[in-house]
UniProtKB/TrEMBL annotation:
Encoding gene, per UniProt annotation: OSBL9
Gene Ontology molecular function terms on file: sterol binding
SUPFAM superfamilies hit by this protein: PH domain-like
Cross-referenced Pfam families: PH
Organism: Caligus rogercresseyi
GO biological process: lipid transport
Protein's name in the database: Oxysterol-binding protein-related protein 9
Annotated keywords: Lipid transport, Lipid-binding, Transport
InterPro entries: Oxysterol-bd (IPR000648), PH-like_dom_sf (IPR011993), PH_domain (IPR001849)
Length: 113
């Protein structure tokens, strides 16, 4: 049986001015409080993680002018920028699932901008 607190899928993650918003494969493990990312689903299958965001005590930033974008600022102060690149219907669905799990389980505060 699939764990509803484990969500996987693609999002774009802001990297830098040169690389912009590359796609990453994300795994949200609400049980562990980790939002892990990989360069591809294949890398995830091999256990080659690119990085992760620890969600306990994080601040979730929701951009109401750009429904595709949200941020997570970890306890160490590092801010991660994420973007959904899909149709508006998919965008709302994916964003709602990720944000709901993150917000309800680990986020300390929600910053709306």
């Amino acid at each position: 049986m699939e764990d509803p607190r484990m969500i996987e899928g693609t999002l774009s993650k802001w990297t830098n001015v040169m690389k912009g918003w590359p796609y990453r494969w994300f795994v949200l493990d609400a049980n562990a409080g980790l939002f892990s990312y990989y360069t591809s689903k294949e890398k995830m299958s091999k256990g080659v993680r690119r990085g992760c965001v620890r969600l306990r005590g994080a601040v979730l930033g929701i951009d109401h002018e750009d429904e595709a974008t949200f941020t997570i600022t970890a306890l160490d102060g590092k801010t991660f920028h994420f973007q959904v690149r899909s149709s508006l219907k998919q965008l709302r669905s994916v964003n709602d699932v990720y944000l709901h799990q993150i917000q309800n389980n680990y986020v300390y505060e929600i910053d709306q901008y």
